[in-house]
């Protein structure tokens, strides 16, 4: 049976292969985006009160983008690592680089529309002190064959991954395919073309929008996050930032390159980013981030019934939950919606309202008030928390959340939240610049 971990918003793994050792330790792997690093964080150190508001829990800073030659000088390329995915054999991590090997000045001038790459990371080497500030943990790079890559979801057998591209060359709009990656060869083997949206004007628009917001968005799906359910022989779900809906794609047809791989579209409140699958594969949670036509942030999380998505997609959205606020008129810009390991709760992050919500899944589907707890996140320096990515430890005890505004190097923060008490147990600083997604793993 195919099964994936929660991807794009949350990943977890155990090096023990399902049998956790008594001396095993928990770590997080965080994207550092503009600092072009991936950071390794020690959970035990992160929840030590003496380390709150410091960088003492950071074990290693791994370089993940290669050197390039610019005007005769060697410089670090601006790859913008934004997403972390963990292989099910617990040996590798994948950092999705939104701008690949781009010249730093080109990425700074316009952060979108660059050719992407995926960095393959050896997780054992990631913990080696010798890997700090070097490329020593990098096994290689995957050429994505697209622009502005974002989401990356791995099948449970570890053989393939679904890779989303949110953009086209030079533009923030224009993403219209999902790539299938063979992880044995680290090669893209299929490109699944997605349908145009239905914005009420001819597609594609002329010209294609260069950047959001633009009223001509709506033709290209511009997929951000992806996740996979085992149902239906394997089904990919893509959070479409350009068309305010979710793509439903047959994994088997996608791997085979067969026609008709995209089988449905499910409308949601706004274009999403973080999306996840429940542990039993029956539900998908989608965070409605914003509308690219108007730049209007969303404020809901959608819960999708996978079986209905395959049989009757018009009825697949079984709940739409207001998050981050009790006022429907208040925009909160949800970033990630992640199922917790118990399958009974969803954790969501809200960039605008600077808080997180814990949602009762059963109550949400029943149409009842479903917010279990709302937690405000505070930075050590008093800046807005701007929460984004989520990772959950394999034992389901803690969540790590990335955030803080884009700014100078090492300006991001991670919050560690106890999932039983809903209390913040620690804050780790100096987590790159505009840290996005994060993963969790366990090692001896």
Automatic annotation (TrEMBL):
What is the name listed in the Swiss-Prot or TrEMBL entry for this protein?
A: WD40-like Beta Propeller Repeat
Q: What InterPro entries has UniProt attached to this entry?
A: Haem_d1_sf, Host-pathogen_enzymatic-act, WD40/YVTN_repeat-like_dom_sf
The organism of origin for this protein: Bosea lathyri
Q: Which domain of life is it from?
A: Bacteria
């Amino acid at each position: 049976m195919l099964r994936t971990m929660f991807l794009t918003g949350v990943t977890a793994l155990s090096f023990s292969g399902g049998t956790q050792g008594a001396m095993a330790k928990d770590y997080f792997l965080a994207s550092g985006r503009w600092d072009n690093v991936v950071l390794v964080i020690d959970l035990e150190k992160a929840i030590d009160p003496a380390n709150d508001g410091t960088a003492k829990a950071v074990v290693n800073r791994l370089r993940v983008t290669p050197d390039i030659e610019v005007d005769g000088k060697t410089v670090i390329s601006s790859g913008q690592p934004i997403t972390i995915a963990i292989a099910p054999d617990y040996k590798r991590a994948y950092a999705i680089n939104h701008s690949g090997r781009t010249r730093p000045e080109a990425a700074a001038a316009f952060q979108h529309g660059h050719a992407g790459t995926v960095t393959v990371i050896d997780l054992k080497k990631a913990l080696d002190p010798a890997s700090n500030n070097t490329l020593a943990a990098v096994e290689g790079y995957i050429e994505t064959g697209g622009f502005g890559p974002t989401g990356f979801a791995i099948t449970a057998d570890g053989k393939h991954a679904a890779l989303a591209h949110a953009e086209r060359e030079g533009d923030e709009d224009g993403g219209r395919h999902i790539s299938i990656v063979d992880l044995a060869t680290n090669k893209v083997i299929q490109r699944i073309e997605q349908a145009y949206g239905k914005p009420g004007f001819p597609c594609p628009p002329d010209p294609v929008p260069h950047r959001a917001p633009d009223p001509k968005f709506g033709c290209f799906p511009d997929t951000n996050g992806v996740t996979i359910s085992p149902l239906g022989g394997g089904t990919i779900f893509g959070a479409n930032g350009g068309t305010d809906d979710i793509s439903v794609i047959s994994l088997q047809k996608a791997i085979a390159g067969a026609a008709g791989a995209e089988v449905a579209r499910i409308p949601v409140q706004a274009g999403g980013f973080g999306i996840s699958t429940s542990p039993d594969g029956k539900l998908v949670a989608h965070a409605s981030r914003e509308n690219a036509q108007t730049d209007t942030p969303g404020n809901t999380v959608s819960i999708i019934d996978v079986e209905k998505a395959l049989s009757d997609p018009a009825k697949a959205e079984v709940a739409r939950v207001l998050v981050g606020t009790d006022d429907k008129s208040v925009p909160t810009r949800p970033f990630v919606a992640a199922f917790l390991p118990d399958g009974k709760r969803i954790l969501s992050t809200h960039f605008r309202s600077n808080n997180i919500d814990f949602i009762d899944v059963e109550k949400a589907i029943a149409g009842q008030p479903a917010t279990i707890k709302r937690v405000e996140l505070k930075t050590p320096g008093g800046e807005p928390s701007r929460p984004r990515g989520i990772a959950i430890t394999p034992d389901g005890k803690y969540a790590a959340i990335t955030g803080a505004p884009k700014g100078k190097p090492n300006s991001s923060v991670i919050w560690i939240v106890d999932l039983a008490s809903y209390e913040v147990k620690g804050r780790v600083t100096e987590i790159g610049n505009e840290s996005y997604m994060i993963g969790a793993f366990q090692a001896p």
